[in-house]
Amino acid sequence: MIVDILEGFSQPRFLTDYWQKKPCLINNWLRPQPLPLTELLGLAEAHELPTRLVSGSQQRSDWRLQQGPLAIEDLPAGQTDWTILVQEMDKASPAVASLLDQFRFLPDWAIDDIMISDAVDGGSVGPHVDAYDVFLVQAGGRRRWQLAENFDPATDERFELKLLKSWQPETEIIVGPGQALYLPAGIAHHGTAIDHCQTWSVGLRTPSGPELMFALAEALAMEGTEGRRMSLSGLDGEMPSRLNTDQIADIRGLLAEAIALDDTTLSQLSAAYLSRWRLWQADSEPLESDQVLQWLRDGVSVPLAPTARLALADGDDGHALFVNGEAVACTSKMAEVLANEQRLGPDWAEVPEAVEQLCDVDALTMPERIND
What is the mean pLDDT of residues 168-185? Predict the structure, then answer.
């Protein structure tokens, strides 16, 4: 496997040549400032973020996992071979969340979170494979990445971590500050800190077929529409409880009829689901719509909250906007601008019902000018 090294980031080239096709290392694109470990753990505790401590090494095969919450005194005394992982850091730190502005060329609803990995020399989580695309942005220190495209998917049942049982890397690359490694889903990888390092992982997830089917069934059931019901044809008096071939065929037909939706309906049901699928509930009080409307009338733009997830669906007149699972009553143009700029402009003061909806689903945050 060859990992191309790109000097700078070109969105058209990346989407054409690399997105969901092959890994690449991008230089001079992203350079976030690492968070001190005390601040990282403090934010994780304050916001009750999922936190894990992974210790061990591939050579010794002695992996151990400890779930958080964790404090500094909970960390190993040794100076090697352990890693702290904190998920959803973009929900707790505006500085971390600002990195997502660089990823708006990808679907907003697919962005999962930013996980921060802080590791001492030798720290790792072992060889594994993810079912989602990920950007591994090096904020501080260096990390050695071993990659494989062809590998044995069997996992080692001895450990709680889903580690590959037999690991044979095909290539190796060292990533330092100012570099970002992109890995499509299905590329196995094993990262090891060369020195004290911090990596910010931006993951993008999409649902599976069964998850989509469940969500669609739930949405259709909530509409309360009565349709044709399953037939009881072809009964066998000797064994009436057995599902016969006629009934199985009828079940297939019922399922096909249930999902036989036009593109607009399917698009809007999907947008509602996808914009709430990975939703993380904020721990702050929602803004009051009257206050937001006043800011807008005063010419102050109001940003979407880091927790907000947005999707655009086909509508009767352009695009329909869905935020955190709710259809928002605004024009197609306003929906498109919000998707691109991630903030409400003064024109939103003309649609107070939509602003109230966004407040109700906790999709807005305090404007910067108000915080200063």
Answer: 96
